[in-house]
Amino acid sequence: MAKKQAAVADIRHYDVILAPHITEKATLLSENNAVVFKVAGDATKPEIKAAVEALFGVSVKGVNTIVQKGKVKRWKGKPYQRSDFKKAIVTLAEGQSIDVTSTI
After folding, report:
1. Among candidate residues 70, 90, 92, the one with its CA nearest the CA of residue 79
2. What CATH number does residue 47 fall under?
3. What binding partners and quaternary form does the record give (predicted)?
4. Does residue 6 carry a pLDDT above 80?
């Protein structure tokens, strides 16, 4: 029974971490042992920490979250709104690193 519960938790880890968020600022944060991920909107900091530790095999020092509001854009003259999304800045322990260019 314990194996079945562990398998469900592993699937949830993939639901929490959606994708790496690669921007210039995120690249600058990598100098300070931090990685930025797009995460599920309902994900909590402990869930994000557990998912990163389980998926990448690293130890996490801290997690900060940000909800980025969607911008109003125009397409063919008509305005529309991009979706909001949640980002997590995950600070890793000293000596730990994650290569976001490789696949999981």
Report:
1. 70
2. 3.30.70.330
3. Part of the 50S ribosomal subunit. Contacts protein L29, and trigger factor when it is bound to the ribosome.
4. no
